[in-house]
Write a structure and sequence with these properties.
The protein is an all-alpha fold. It folds into 2 domains: 53 residues, Arc Repressor Mutant, subunit A, CATH 1.10.10; 141 residues, Orthogonal Bundle (Tetracycline Repressor, domain 2). Helix content is 74%, strand content 0%. Keywords: DNA-binding, Transcription, Transcription regulation. This is WHG domain-containing protein. InterPro entries: Homeodomain-like_sf, HTH_TetR, MT1864/Rv1816-like_C, Tet_transcr_reg_TetR-rel_C_sf. One of its GO terms (molecular function) is DNA binding.
Length: 204
């Protein structure tokens, strides 16, 4: 193909990532293929394999970009001032859910992509996940200072799991409720925060 010499490797990588994200605004990631993405950027599939290592790693690079943007949204919330711990957690939950609703297929890719047995998760991806969980753990540590580090680790994952589960059900329209996802999220955060305050009280 004539275009092979027109771009650097980094430019081709960015073109491929942009192409995947553009396709994800219109369809599910499971309907994509290496050949389609290569066609979008004007290079052979083998070129993309040489640059990314595998088709899964190409998708994982997209996943990393999406996860990075999600982390930025959560960090913005953490920089704000709230009147209560419950309001702060609700804001974090809303930011998470709204991000998912604004780009549902890209969000699904982050958590649905499965690597092969000979495709280890890169350290950069592990770091992003650790930063997201660490962000929640830090916020909860400030709100619940009497909890031990081990309980904070459990609490951060418990909170994330509850918000992620509700968000996923809402995206799939499987809440089976007349209440909106925001009403359910608000109630869920209230119950979780109340329980955690009681847990912290027992630790003091």
């Amino acid at each position: 193909m004539a275009r092979r010499k027109e771009h650097s490797h980094q430019e081709i990588r960015l073109m491929a990532l942009d192409a995947v994200e553009q396709l994800l605004t219109q369809e599910e990631y499971t309907s994509l293929s290496l050949r389609r993405i290569a066609s979008q950027v004007g290079y052979a599939p083998s070129t993309l394999i040489n640059l990314f290592g595998s088709y899964n790693y190409l998708l994982l690079s997209v996943s990393a970009r999406v996860l990075g943007r999600l982390l930025e949204q959560m960090q913005l919330v953490c920089g704000q001032t709230f009147t209560s711990g419950e309001q702060q957690l609700l804001a974090l939950g809303k930011a998470y859910a709204e991000f998912a609703h604004n780009q549902p297929q890209a969000f699904r890719l982050v958590f649905a992509l499965h690597l092969g047995p000979e495709e280890p998760l890169p350290e950069s991806q592990q770091q992003l996940i650790a930063e997201l969980i660490g962000l929640l753990e830090q916020q909860l540590g400030d709100l619940l200072p009497n909890l031990s580090s081990s309980k904070l680790a459990l609490a951060s994952r418990s909170f994330w799991s509850s918000i992620h589960g509700l968000t996923g059900l809402a995206l799939d329209d499987k809440l089976f409720s007349q209440a909106s996802w925001l009403q359910l999220l608000t109630f869920q955060v209230h119950l979780w925060w109340t329980a955690m305050q009681q847990e912290e009280g027992a630790c003091s």
